[in-house]
Amino acid sequence: PFSYGASLSSEQANFNGNHPYCEANKGVYRTREIPVGSFEPNGFGLFDMHGNVFEWCEDVGHTSYEGAPTDGSAWVAGGDLSGRVLGGRVLRGGSWACDADSCRSAFRRLCGFPSTRCIDHS
Predict the structure, then answer these.
(1) How far apart are CA 30 and CA 46, in angstroms?
(2) Is 58 left (phi over 0), alpha (psi -120 to 50) or beta?
């Protein structure tokens, strides 16, 4: 679920350390963003792919992957998340205010449009 393996602690990423993932111990809850590069990079040399701030994706939100592009391109057409912002963009990676579960690579959240500032306290 994470570039670090099956669990995530607040020694590896900036999230609500009171709610780690899997067998990780509870840790620090920093309550704010911190400078990029405060933790070790993943295997590709990328920093902060889990936690700190959500990453806005080009893809619009859909309830399933049926009809998604199969060539790796962004899914920019449509959007069918009933009761939410039609055409809203997908957020990934979690944030400082989230539990570790929201930092998993498979987790998606919908936010409005690129000009929307989303603050998530889940």
Answers:
(1) 21
(2) alpha
Burial of residue 84 (CB within 10 Å: 0-12, 13-18, 19+) is middle
Are 69 and 89 a contacting pair, CB within 8 Å?
no
Token code pair at residue 10? 């607040």
Distance CA 67, CA 42 (A): 31
Write out pLDDT tens, residues 26-59: 999 999 999 999 999 988 999 988 999 988 888 8
How many CB atoms are closer than 10 A to CB 30? 17
Return all residues near 61 (Cβ < 8 A) that are at least 6 apart.
79, 80, 81, 84, 88, 89, 90, 108, 110
Whether this prediction's pTM lies above 0.70 is answered by yes
What's the first-to-final CA gap in the chain, in angstroms?
A: 19
